[in-house]
Amino acid sequence: MSEIGFYHLTRTPLAAALPKLLGRVLAQNGRAVVRVGDAERLESLDAALWLSADPDWLPHGSPRSGHAAMQPIWLTTEDEAPNDARFLFLVDGAESARLGSYDRVFDLFDGQDEAAVAAARQRWSAAKAAGHSLTYWQQGPRGWERKA
Fold first, then answer.
1. Is CB count within 10 Å lower at the N or C end of the chain?
2. Whether the Cβ atoms of residue 102 and residue 85 lie closer than 8 Å to each other
3. Could you read off the pLDDT of 75-122 as tens digits, one per residue?
4. Helix/strand/coil (H, E, C) string of the chain?
5. Which domains are present in the chain?
6. What is the pLDDT of residues 122-140, one digit of tens each?
């Protein structure tokens, strides 16, 4: 089973929080897939990752740029890992039928959106019932804080 971390965004938007988490994956020579809800979000995150200042280099690709197998970070709307990623980032309520294929899953959700919080609770319940190891993280004044 996979380790799934639920990341409750309360202080910064996704475009600011995601680069730092992806940077940690790359620092470990890891590969990641970022599954988004729609093509518009994919395009906005693509731009945000290229413009990121912290970290300042997040090499990535998407179906538009191609060469999936060469990309350390792959942005997609599909439930796929064409870059052999061991880390999965789910945003916009995106889900995966392949959670067990990853070492670690990051489920990021907007704490200012009641519907997103309710949907995250449902994903938590389903993941727990499936036997995955779960953690809950919330943004605090000094960064991510693990909650009980």
1. C
2. yes
3. 999 999 999 999 999 999 999 999 999 999 999 999 999 999 999 999
4. CCEEEEEEECCCCHHHHHHHHHHHHHHCCCCEEEECCCHHHHHHHHHHHHHCCCCCCCCCECCCCCCHHHCCEEEECCCCCCCCCCEEEECCCCCCCCHHHCCEEEEEEECCCHHHHHHHHHHHHHHHHCCCEEEEEEEECCEEEEEC
5. 3-147 (3.40.50.10110)
6. 999 999 999 999 999 999 9
